[in-house]
Amino acid sequence: MSNLVIIGMQWGDEGKGKIVDLLCPAFGVVVRYQGGHNAGHTVKFGDRHFSLHLIPSGILHPGTNCVLGNGMVINPDAFFEELENLIAAGVEVEGNLFVSSRAQTILPLHSILDQAREGALGEGKIGTTARGIGPAYELKAARLGVRLGDLGTGDLRGRLEAQHKRIAHELNQLGSPKIPSVDELEEQCRAWASRLAPYLKDTSRLLNQWLSEGGDLLFEGAQGALLDVDHGTYPFVTSSNATAGGAATGSGVPPTAIDGVLGVLKAYTTRVGGGPFVGELEDEMGEELRKRGNEYGTTTGRPRRCGWLDMVAARHAQLVNGVDVIALTKLDILDHLEEVPVCVGYRYKGEVLRDFPSELGILESAEPVFEIRPGWKSDTTGVVDFIDLPQQAKDYISFIEDGLDAPVGIVSSGPRREETIVREVAPLRRLTENLLDSIVAGRGRLGSS
User: Fold this and answer.
1) Looking at residue 46, what is its pLDDT?
2) Which residues are registered as beta bridge partners of 412?
3) Domain's final residue, options 157, 174, 196
4) What is the CATH number of the domain that holds 151?
5) In this structure, are 206 and 266 located in the same domain?
6) CB-based contact 93:274 (threshold 8 Å)
7) 61 in catalytic set
8) Which distant-in-sequence residues (6+ apart) come within 8 Å of 306 by Cβ?
9) pLDDT of residue 444
10) Element holding 262 (H helix, E strand)
11) Residue 443 pLDDT grade (very low, low, confident, very high; cuts 50, 70, 90)
């Protein structure tokens, strides 16, 4: 594969940061194509710890070009904070970080509106991070958005006045406190424009230029397939297309240039925020998975809801993304179990459903149908060769491959970068040599989760 999309096959938090970081040496460019600072990847260099919310993890690899695409919504203050943290840590960003001038701006008004809306919903809240993501996408669709390239232009004030009028009216109805004036917003935007100028580019043109020169692109999705605004558990979703199809529209690269999709799947399932979760464990076992897997949000710190692997949801993710190969993460979290239940169907009104329902009412009422797989009761942490896994762990992986009709090419056996198994499977054949070299070089030096 020359140009590869990495997506999450669940509700996010599958460990995409580690997989992107692992694959970076085989690519010259990493592209983030949707979302905002509501997503997070955790990466570790030795005893240093990075939490990246906007900038692709490829920035930690010298010489890798990193692009924030047009499909993103960007809070400039969040971008600058992340940038400053990287520079302070000695990470080189000059000359290899590019931000689309077509990306939408998250204004202070958006986060205020987001918080007010969530507060008004009470128990029916969606569970948004309240960082202004939804309102920014909403105003983009309404053609009232402010793109990063517009922050210093002459028609900026008119756009700000239109947004201010619309948002102030709603906030007044919600009883929200006073919001920034148009004058204050304009001053803020023009200050942002000056600081952003060195990074802003027509990134779609830049990406296509790299393609014409034979460059290889790695597309990094945020969140997961089940949070996609079209294909997820609507309305408990994010506001963008987190599925592989979003890579083309969110970057300006034609879909014909994308060669394959790698889906990241956790060995069990988690979800943050509200919404249906058929196989959720609301008992001691759920809490045990949370503690063993350190299941707390990178962006918010919120505890993640935990459950067994959901093959119904995973098959849906495979279908809508066209997943060619799977990276299975956090296998080691299940090491202690005698048995590993897997959700293989949903029972609804006496019928067992094998396909993921689109109707919210069904998802909220359905009960999981489990198949019990034998556990391996053996420590797999740090295993780097597939042959060294216990037979029951290999069988668990084969069960996943059969159920999803896609090979598991990468198995994560721990949080560190070098704690990874890379298998010789056809979709990854071109990358395997580079990946193995990268893992060997990184042992004892670099890790991520």
Assistant:
1) 53
2) 420
3) 196
4) 1.10.300.10
5) yes
6) no
7) no
8) 268, 269, 270, 280, 281, 286, 287, 289, 290, 293, 295
9) 37
10) strand 260-266
11) very low
Which one from 37, 41, 53, 316 is the annotated catalytic residue? 41
Domain residues for the domain of 126 are 104-196
* CA separation for the pair 427, 2 (Å, rounded): 11
Regarding whether 135 and 252 lie in a shared domain, the answer is no
- List the structure tokens of 278: 């058929």
Tell me: the pLDDT tens digits for 344-381?
A: 999 999 999 999 999 999 999 999 999 999 999 999 99
Number of domains in the chain: 2
310 catalytic per annotation: no
Whole-angstrom CA distances from 432 to 178, 265, 387, 440, 442 are 56, 19, 17, 12, 15
Q: Are 286 and 386 within one domain?
A: yes
Do 104 and 71 contact (CB within 8 A), yes or no?
no
Residue 53 and residue 150: Cα distance in Å, rounded?
23
User: What three-state secondary structure class fits 65?
Assistant: strand
Tell how strand 260-266 and strand 325-329 pair up.
parallel
Cis check for the bond before 235: say yes or no (omega within 30 of 0): yes
pLDDT beyond 90 at 439: no
What would the two tokens of residue 180 be?
A: 């920034």
> What is the rounded distance in angstroms from the CA atom of residue 449 to the CA atom of residue 441?
18
